[in-house]
Amino acid sequence: MTDTSSELRSRLDKVKAKRGYLLPHHGLLATLSERMIEAYDGLYTALALDHKVLSVRDRELVWLAVLIATDEAIATHHIPKFREGGGTQEEFVAVLRLTSLVLGSGAYSFVEQHWEKHWPNLSTAQEFVSAVEITSSPLSRRDAWLCTCAILAAKARFSLLREAIMAAYRAGIVEVDLAEALSIMIFPGSVPHFVEASRVWMELIRDGSVTASPTFAIWAGLEGQGGYDEASGRL
């Protein structure tokens, strides 16, 4: 490593000036590679700071849900951002209650897989949808499903994510809003989980379970989205 301490400090000063704070991984990335800290900062800025389609309040609402779900205690800067965007404590409590429900959603998957046959009139998928919409009050159905889809993706609950995306469409959600909400879980939830969540959504469009807009239909219809195995003929 030939970088001088002044060069390293300069890299970190740029990051701190943009955010107002530093985290330990910023220093480690900057120490390793100037290109890496610049690329990371660019992606984080585009993902978490730049305005896309969600309002500040809506974006931070989803961030708080995902951070609670993934035990990310250090990211407290999203709390004042939520407040500054118009978010209230009542809404935060609703997000907390909703996240707790979604984290416990394995119970619905268990009953669906093992016990649903013993209850001929029971649809555990529908019960899950109802539980989300009841538990999330006073949040709107739109807000509830933006948060729920992001949490399920972050926690790799892909079977229930399928149900949640269909519920989001029934609630009249705008697709680009949902796309931004899902992208929020990339850092705390992992890129592989985002890849799989995208596949779930793509397949819902392909099999006609949801009616996509022309733009999202083009995305879902593109061939060659199966990664290396598809490209190499191993699928």
Q: Outline of this structure?
A:
With 235 residues, the protein is mostly helical. The protein has helices spanning 5-19, 24-32, 34-49, 56-69, 78-84, 89-103, 106-114, 124-135, 141-154, 158-170, 175-183, 186-189, 191-206, 214-221, 227-231. The longest helix has 16 residues, at 34-49.
Describe, in plain words, how this protein is organized in 3D:
The chain has 235 residues and is an all-alpha fold. The protein folds into 2 domains: 1-50; 52-231, AhpD-like (Up-down Bundle). It has 15 helices and no strands. It has helices at 5-19, 24-32, 34-49, 56-69, 78-84, 89-103, 106-114, 124-135, 141-154, 158-170, 175-183, 186-189, 191-206, 214-221, 227-231.
Quickly list its features.
235 residues; 2 domains; 15 helices; globular
SSE order and pairing:
Elements: H1 5-19, H2 24-32, H3 34-49, H4 56-69, H5 78-84, H6 89-103, H7 106-114, H8 124-135, H9 141-154, H10 158-170, H11 175-183, H12 186-189, H13 191-206, H14 214-221, H15 227-231
Helix pairs in contact: 1-2, 2-3, 4-5, 4-6, 4-9, 6-9, 7-8, 8-10, 9-10, 9-11, 10-13, 13-14
Helix content: over 70%
Strand content: under 5%
Main CATH class of the largest domain: Mainly Alpha
Annotated CATH homologous superfamily of the largest domain: AhpD-like
How many separate helices?
15
Q: What is the number of E strands?
A: 0
- Count of the domains: 2
Overall average residue pLDDT:
92
Please describe the biggest sheet, giving its number of strands, its sense, and whether it closes into a barrel.
Answer: none
Low-confidence stretches: none
Query: Which topology of the largest domain does CATH recognise?
Result: AhpD-like
Any guess at the CATH architecture of the largest domain? Answer: Up-down Bundle
Note the overall shape: globular
